[in-house]
């Protein structure tokens, strides 16, 4: 798992360095969730692999390449979604519109990003979901393994986008009438349907535990060493919100969540390893879930 994360980080770094203007070490460290020292190590590694890593007068790093047709700027994921919605709303339903949407997808970052994912199967899943996003249609996630119950089932969803790290799908699930987050490497396959997407609500980026909601709630957790390690491994975005402290609890997480299910699931999965400092509402949620011996998906 560690080796795969390092490889994925290298591919993400290559993609960032291919963009103009270049990126500073501090900016790269924040985006990749690593230290500036680690960024320099990765830059050295890229040079050893044969990449022409260069630095401009303002200290921004980039990969030098001659300007060719292959290096023309691609459409960003968000741009493709916006253009796709315009085509859906203003062109009549026809084979011509479908062809335009497929061409839009082919010249976008969806296809490019899929090639950067380390796992070939995950890349195929990403590609299929990216095309469904562009076509604005529903999909069936085949053999999706729920992180809470462990059950494997097919899930009918309406893709809405990807998280910023491109590891999770944001999608509306008609059965639960909720916007949820689905981890790409838990999806066995994707069946694209002809039925159009019906939900057009606003989708905010989920909290660090993958949950969506209208309001943010402050959460403070004291963590054991084991809980800390598992937290940053499973939810890398939490690293920036964790600090060291003295006493019997060596680490503390302080951040915001949009729903109790995600953070509650993590707390309940590590009994005795986490102390909820606040809020009381989270304590109450965990007590109720423990009483019923069930986790929300």
CATH architecture of the largest domain: Roll
**Biggest β-sheet description:** 5 strands, antiparallel
Main-sheet strand order equals 6-5-4-3-7
Superfamily (CATH H level) name of the largest domain: SH3 Domains
Distance between the termini: 24 Å
Strand content: 15-25%
CATH class bucket of the largest domain: Mainly Beta
The figure for the number of domains is: 3
- Which class of secondary structure composition applies to the elements? alpha+beta
Q: What is the CATH third-level topology name of the largest domain?
A: SH3 type barrels
Number of helices: 10
Percent range of helical residues: 25-40%
Order of helices and strands: HHHEEHHHHEEEEEEHEEHEH
Shape: globular
The total beta strand count reads 11
Low-confidence stretches: 66-72
Cα gyration radius (Å): 21 Å
């Amino acid at each position: 798992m560690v080796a795969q994360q390092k490889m994925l980080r290298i591919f993400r770094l290559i993609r960032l360095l291919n963009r103009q203007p270049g990126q500073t070490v501090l900016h790269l460290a924040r985006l990749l969730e690593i230290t500036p020292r680690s960024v320099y190590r990765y830059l050295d590694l890229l040079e050893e692999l044969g990449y022409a890593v260069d630095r401009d007068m303002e200290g921004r790093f980039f990969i030098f390449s001659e300007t060719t047709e292959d290096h023309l700027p691609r459409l960003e994921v968000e741009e493709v979604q916006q253009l796709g919605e315009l085509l859906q709303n203003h062109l009549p339903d026809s084979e011509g519109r479908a062809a335009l949407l497929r061409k839009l997808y082919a010249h976008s970052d969806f296809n490019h990003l899929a090639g950067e994912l380390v796992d070939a199967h995950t890349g195929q899943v990403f590609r299929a979901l990216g095309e469904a996003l562009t076509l604005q249609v529903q999909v069936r996630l085949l053999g999706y393994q729920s992180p809470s119950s462990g059950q494997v089932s097919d899930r009918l969803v309406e893709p809405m986008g990807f998280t910023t790290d491109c590891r999770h799908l944001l999608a509306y699930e008609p059965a639960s009438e909720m916007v949820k987050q689905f981890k790409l490497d838990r999806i066995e396959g994707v069946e694209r349907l002809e039925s159009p997407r019906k939900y057009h609500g606003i989708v905010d980026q989920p909290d660090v535990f993958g949950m969506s909601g209208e309001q943010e709630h402050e959460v403070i957790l004291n963590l054991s060493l084991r809980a800390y390690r598992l937290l940053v491994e499973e939810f890398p975005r939490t690293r920036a919100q964790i600090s060291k402290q003295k006493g019997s609890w060596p680490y503390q997480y302080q951040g915001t969540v949009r729903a109790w299910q995600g953070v509650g699931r993590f707390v309940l999965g590590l009994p005795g390893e986490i102390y909820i400092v606040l809020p009381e509402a989270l304590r109450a949620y965990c007590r109720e879930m423990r009483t019923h011996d069930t986790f929300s998906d």
